[in-house]
Amino acid sequence: MKKVILALCLLAINFAIAPKGMAQADRLASFVGGEEALKDYIAKNANFPQEAMGNKPINGRVYVLAEVQEDGSLDKIKVVRKLDPILDESAIRLAQNMPKWLPQMRGDKGVRSTVRMTIKFVLDPRLKEAIAKQKVQDIKRLVEELKYKKR
Question: Is the CATH number 3.30.2420 carried by domain 12-121?
Answer without folding.
Answer: yes
